[in-house]
Amino acid sequence: MILRVLPEAQGEAIEAAVWYEDRQRSLGEEFLCEIETAFERIRQGVDSLSRLEQYSGLLDIRRMILRRFPYAVIVLWRTDETIVVAIAHTRRRPLYWMDRVN
User: Fold this and answer.
1) Is 60 left (phi over 0), alpha (psi -120 to 50) or beta?
2) Domain spanning 3-91: CATH superfamily
3) Is 46 helix (H, G, I), strand (E, B) or coil?
4) pLDDT digit string, tens, across residues 44-89
5) What's the CA gap between 45 and 63, in Å, rounded?
6) Which of 13, 14, 62, 101 could disulfide-link to 87, CB 3.0 to 4.6 Å?
7) In whole angstroms, what is the distance from residue 16 CA to residue 66 CA?
């Protein structure tokens, strides 16, 4: 399965990692490691991911909530690739990334 990460999602991951690193040494690195673990699980198949409840459109949008951090990896699944649309905080600005999938 091809996994493509949008530049905006990459930027969100880096921004969050910097924020965590500023709070505690090595916490930003731990955040990025958890993101990479999520990417590996997504590469294995999106069947285990839950569909996004707030989205009611025609696209197949799913999410993987990180275990340790209040973030979710939002993906758009297509038959030929899976696209990481956002690394979104779970308690802020729901669906702000919608313009990335249209």
Assistant:
1) beta
2) RelE-like (3.30.2310.20)
3) helix
4) 988 889 988 888 889 999 999 999 999 999 999 998 999 999 999 9
5) 12
6) 13
7) 13
